[in-house]
Amino acid sequence: MKKNLAEFIGTFWLVLGGCGSAVLAAAFPEVGIGLVGVALAFGLTVLTIAYSLGHISGAHLNPAVTIGLWAGGRVSGGSILPYVISQILGGIAAAAVLYIIATGNGSDIGNFAANGYGEHSPGGYSLTAAIVSEFVMTFMFLIVILGSTDDKAPQGFAGLAIGLALTLIHLISIPVTNTSVNPARSISQALFVGDWALAQLWVFILIPILGAIAAGVVYKFLKK
Predict the structure, then answer these.
(1) CATH number at residue 108
(2) Per the structure, how many domains does the chain have?
(3) DSSP string for 95-152
């Protein structure tokens, strides 16, 4: 239960910090943080939770990460469902808080930092581009996670490597899909946007999970 609560809190912070920066601060008149600021915000959420709650639950904060770690032989299959449920609920709770804040000045939520492709991609990128981007970015994210948390890796630096990796991933792929690589983050925002975001949600659930599984299998092979 403590591990599940830690995953709930950690994912809550990731969605509130990352999506909150996109919704509230990215385009704030004249002093907005822009895409670089949003990318950094996502990385900082993972970095801060990794060092504060990582020793309790491992700070997965992401169903794809949990499943990728299982594929890599790091966690048991029995921990997947409780972790994934906790992560999704944490993301939804954060989206609810963000909704209350974002509408506090009478504004509409707009796209609410939801993930999308085609006309709902920030740069108008196609479904194929979205699939390739989400698969590759999640694959590399899991390679970094598996490698930096390996018992042969330098100790104490995993949180830094993982946080910076997520920042880099967002710097690359925000224009393509608004960057998911995390089904919990995608589900939470899509529930509040509805309509097109729910229709396109399958991409941001299925593809990150497939990318994570592929990374787990590849890293396990590299370790043999």
Answers:
(1) 1.20.1080.10
(2) 1
(3) HHHHHHHHTTTS---TTTT----GGGSTT---HHHHHHHHHHHHHHHHHHHHHHTSTT
- pTM here is 0.94
Tell me the DSSP string of 16-80. Answer: HHHHHIIIIITT-TTT--HHHHHHHHHHHHHHHHHHHHHHHH----SHHHHHHHHHTTSS-GGGH
pLDDT higher than 90, residue 110: no
- Burial of 156: CB neighbours in 10 Å, binned 0-12, 13-18, 19+: exposed
Query: Rounded CA gap, 214 and 152, in Å?
Result: 21
Give residue-wise pLDDT tens across range 155-209. Answer: 889 999 999 999 999 999 999 999 999 999 999 999 999 999 999 999 999 999 9
- Could you give the CA distance from residue 40 to residue 67 in angstroms, rounded to a whole number? 25
pLDDT digits (tens, 9 = 90+) for 56-107: 998 999 999 999 999 999 999 999 999 999 999 999 999 999 999 999 998 8
Q: Residue length, the chain?
A: 224
Identify the residue whose tokens are 């639950």: 57
Burial (CB count within 10 angstroms: exposed 0-12, middle 13-18, buried 19+), residue 80: middle
Domain that holds residue 183: 2-223
Contact between 200 and 116 under an 8 Å Cβ cutoff? The reply is: yes
Residue 53 has pLDDT above 90, yes or no: yes
Contact 147, 219 (CB under 8 A): yes
Mention every residue, 6+ apart, whose C-beta is less than 8 A from residue 38.
18, 21, 22, 25, 26, 170, 174
